[in-house]
Design goal:
Blueprint (H helix, E strand, L loop, with lengths): L2 E2 L3 E4 L4 E4 L5 E2 H17 L5 H12 L6 H11 L4 H7 L4 H8 L6 H12 L8
Antiparallel strand pairs: 1-4, 2-3
Helix pairs in contact: 4-5
Length: about 130
Amino acid sequence: MNSVSKEFVIHHELATVVVTPKVRLNSARLKREIKAAVKKYDDETLIPASVVQREIRKRLGSYYETPGYYIRVYRYRADLTQAALAKKAEMRQAHLSEMENNKRPIGKVNARKFGKLLGFDYRKLL
């Protein structure tokens, strides 16, 4: 059995993978597993961002790219619930919900707060 305890390298057109096992491994099996994972990634159908944006625009209509839309997108990106973000922003969850649904103005102070908490340029909300 061909096993390794030192690092070994797998070359692929996408990247070179260097593996440093913590225990002795069957290198042939590990290489097969890694190559299979890379092949699976290669075989995935990638969708251009423009197609995704066109579909989102069609689904969301006038809500697309509104201030409330951006709060929701960045909140999702930060993996936060409305309640969690509202707590961090020191506001009621109902107010955040109204802002996300464009039923309540955000204001400059809250825009800056959201920008800082969620890591984006607050001017997108103004």
